[in-house]
Design a protein that fits this description.
The complex is a heterodimer of chains A (124) and B (389).
Chain A lengths: L3 H8 L12 E7 L4 E10 L2 E10 L2 H14 L4 H5 L3 H7 L8 H22 L3
Antiparallel strand pairs in A: 1-2, 2-3
Helix pairs in contact in A: 1-2, 2-5, 4-5
Chain B lengths: L2 E2 L10 H7 L1 H4 L10 H21 L6 E4 L2 H19 L5 E4 L5 H12 L3 E4 L10 H7 L4 E5 L13 H10 L3 E5 L18 E5 L10 E5 L25 H36 L5 E3 L10 E6 L4 H10 L2 E2 L15 H5 L4 H4 L2 E5 L6 H20 L9
The chains are: A alpha+beta (124), B alpha/beta (389).
């Protein structure tokens, strides 16, 4: 069902962890659906200096959380905002159609974290 | 170490069953309806198989109809009884079942609703038990059939079929039970169980996939789903799958013969597994603690998701299953877990472990060691630690 890349990110997740003092937090999904992702970012000079995540969900949810943070780390906010679900899925060498919503969730989580950061900073 | 704990999903075919089946592929390959010797030998094997199954069910051989498995047997029981009403112009258009039945029963019922039948889904309690009182209340003058599974495939709860069947009969309705999970695990007797129809499947009892049977009490009004050459006394046409049927019957015979010694041992291992697992924080057992299948252990572990749990266990060599939405084709959580009152978020965090006669103490010890580690790892990466907020 899953590509080797997905299994790799599922077994050895990157950037996993809690952030005590994040500059922005993106929370997506809900326990009723079975997939929840929290994405935490630390921003310096409009760049994602550090990024972490906590996820409750299937292998695809865990792998997409890991991948989206890999793609976003070190990028400017502008670049990170543009990361799409397609890019996340492609970077994982594809997801089964039924699991594509997980990549959507991950991309949304990142966008929400950036939005949250901007709100906190007072800029739109 | 490879530990298979998914016996309610399927099982390995017993080597003795394989041996019994082999001649029927390339030596005794006759069509059981053919008049020549080769056909008659196949016919003889078919009838011998029928007797074997009838013996275990305590019924007459002619009351055993071979099918392609549990799904077909269940469909035949429900739709066959329903169609017989339609073709005879009968008035009994009400069916009663439970919300924890297997998908094939529920989907067959939903389809029958589309063609004018009324279906009542009698609620179950938190253990998944159907209460005789609630069934009594649901019975109507035009109730055709009550269908309640003997043992639930997910949470393992065992119903008091004898009592439920009695109520159905008191109101002039047929009683059908899906015994796919209970055959060879619990004793079956169609007479004492008050059933008119009973479904069995081969592949969960160390028999081949693609075969099963439906017990149909003599005199039951049933139209076939499969029309054709009139096989199985007109109840199920189609050239008989003799090799499969021979295998199925042998699996039933062996399973029932070994049940008195095997099942207590398996239940003991299962109980050991349950006791250790419940030491994990924020976990519980689903289904009735005592009225449960000897092979079944079903848990919830809060704050983690079932598919990821299954895959992590798989990586440690343990095969199991879950009722989580992420693991299903429909992305819906298990209807059984929702029916017993679990909120969706808990249904997603479920784990089903179902033992078989070949599981060893060593395998259970290994599982008991691995499971808490895997749960802890997934909880570490989960955003929820104490509650779902």
């Amino acid at each position: 069902m899953y590509s080797q890349k997905v299994i790799d990110h599922f077994t050895h997740p990157r950037n996993q962890g809690h952030m005590d003092d994040p500059d922005g937090v993106g929370k997506v999904g809900n326990p009723v659906c079975g997939d929840v992702m929290h994405i935490y970012i630390k921003v310096k000079d409009d760049t994602i200096e550090d990024i972490k995540w906590e996820t409750m969900g299937c292998a695809a949810a865990i792998a997409t959380s890991s991948m989206v943070t890999e793609l976003a780390k070190g990028k400017t906010l502008e670049e990170a905002e543009k990361i799409t679900r397609g890019e996340v899925a492609d970077a994982l060498e594809g997801l089964p159609p039924i699991k594509m919503h997980c990549s959507n969730l991950a991309a949304d989580g990142l966008k929400k974290a950036i939005e949250d950061y901007k709100k906190k900073r007072g800029s739109s | 170490m490879r530990v298979y704990l998914d016996h309610s999903a399927t099982s390995a075919v017993d080597p003795r069953v394989v041996e019994a089946m082999l001649p029927f592929f390339d030596k005794e390959y006759g069509n059981a309806s053919s008049l020549h010797q080769l056909g008659q030998e196949a016919h003889h094997a078919l009838e011998e198989a029928r007797e074997k199954v009838a013996h275990v069910l305590h019924c007459r051989p002619e009351e055993v109809i071979f099918t392609s498995g549990g799904t077909e047997s269940n469909n035949t029981a429900l739709k066959g009884a329903a169609f017989a009403q339609l073709t005879k112009g009968g008035e009994k258009k009400h069916i009663i079942t439970s919300p924890i039945e297997h998908d094939c029963v529920l989907n067959a019922c939903r389809w029958l609703e589309k063609i004018g039948f009324e279906v009542t889904y009698v609620p179950v309690d938190k253990y998944g038990l159907v209460s005789p009182e609630q069934l009594e209340e649901a019975m109507k003058k035009n109730t055709l059939l009550v269908s309640v599974m003997h043992a639930n495939n997910e949470i393992g709860t065992v119903q008091d079929i004898t009592e439920l069947g009695k109520i159905a009969h008191e109101h002039g309705a047929y009683f059908h039970t899906d015994a796919v999970q209970s055959i060879t695990k619990l004793p079956l007797d169609v007479n004492t169980m008050n059933v008119d129809m009973l479904s069995l499947s081969s592949h969960k009892i160390h028999g081949p996939k693609g075969v099963g049977c439906l017990y149909v009490k003599k005199g039951t009004a049933l139209d076939p789903l499969m029309h054709g050459g009139g096989h199985e006394r007109g109840f199920r046409s189609g050239t008989e799958n003799v090799s499969g049927i021979v295998g199925f019957a042998e699996a039933v015979r062996i399973g029932e013969e070994e049940r008195p010694t095997v099942m207590p041992r398996v239940a003991h291992l299962r109980d050991k597994l349950i006791k250790s697992t419940l030491e994990i924080e924020n976990s519980w057992l689903n289904g009735h603690p005592e009225k449960r299948l000897p092979i079944n252990a079903h848990f919830c572990f809060r704050f983690i998701e079932g598919e990821s749990l299954i895959l992590r266990l798989d990586m440690k060599g343990i095969s199991a299953s879950t009722g989580s939405a992420c693991s299903s084709k429909s992305l819906e959580p298990s209807h059984v877990l929702l029916a017993i009152g679990l909120p969706p978020e808990d249904a997603h965090s479920s784990l089903r472990l179902t033992l078989g006669r070949d599981n060893t103490e060593e395998e259970i010890d290994y599982t008991v060691k691995v499971l808490p580690e895997v749960v802890a790892n997934l909880r570490e990466i989960s955003p929820f630690k104490d509650s779902y907020e």
